[in-house]
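Write out structure tokens for Acyl-CoA dehydrogenase family protein.
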Amino acid sequence: MSSQALRRLPVAPHEDAALLARLSARFAETAADHDRDGSFPRDNFAALQAQGLIALVAPREHGGGGASLDAARRVLAAVAYGEPATALILTMTWLQHHAIGRSDSRWPAHLRERVLRDAVRDGALINALRVEPALGSPARGGLPATTARRDGDQWKLSGHKLYTTGIEGLRWLSVWGRTDEPSPRVGVFLVPRDAPGVRVVASWDHLGLRASGSHEVIFEEVAIPLDHAVDLRAPAEWAPDAGSQTDVDAHATQQAWMVVLLATLYDAVARAARDWLLGFLNHRAPSGLGAPLASLPRVQETVGEIEALLRTNRVLLDEAAAEVDAGHAPSAADSGLLKYTVTTQAIRAVELALQSSGNHGLTRHNPLERHYRDVLCSRIHTPQNDAILVAAGKGALGAATVR
């Protein structure tokens, strides 16, 4: 798709609500099949690319849509409502595009241009590969075992990564690794997915988001040019509060984008669950009752509680996106609390839907049990709940000692 075509797309997607509704419905038609088989939703990404939505967040100067966080979040909600694994893979690509496309990005200009133009032209996907068997999540600290060895005018990369979301459809891998230098540097190595020595271990067999294809990847002496080490620093320089104020602000903004998009995804799953429940309650009329379940006050009260949870989520997410788009990114601690609140309430909303539907909600013939399995996955994304709450608690207690 040409950059001209992309610029004609609505960067305020609510202006094209019909398009988003069609995409949601289309993705929902095959969501159960992808969940059952654990199959990669290739057709969904073809449909997204046909509308220029894979490069929606890429900067306009690179041919992308240059979308705001609010605009991206509204598109993502529609995708996740239909098929959340597709939305998760899209989120990871958008987060990379946002980070790469910043004016203060440390990426070499030619690599930034190549990755972003690939997305515009071909719908090429990219994701960060960070988690390892021994390291766990890098957010918890520690150095990666994935190692780059200098060999003439190349790096030779070797290592083992877990949870490589979307690997079956990625073109670019942004790999977190270290150098084998006496004083190791840590950072990002850009690896083509089809590079010799990249091997996928198809191990993903998860409770939820089964279509995300988050398999393991082995790197065996993978050769990449020296300039594909796009951002290497001393380990201490990767601390969130290290570097200039510009670096600190950029980290806070990137964290806010991640949290708002991920929270939007799981809120959309809860909304899909709510909508299924409403249809069920209005049509299910037990013979002993002689009226639909929706006529019962206790059922109405439960649905009202679900509405309260989802309304709060919508207000929080709308407000957060507006603040970020206005240049006022929240602190990392506040972003964490947003994720905790929205995802906890999304899980609670689906639990209430299951409570109201009984056995009907738990059968695999209906989508509610799938929505429940998917929404539970919200807990495992960085930052995790324990880290969020410890940071918030320490901050509140520290502030209290000052007063």
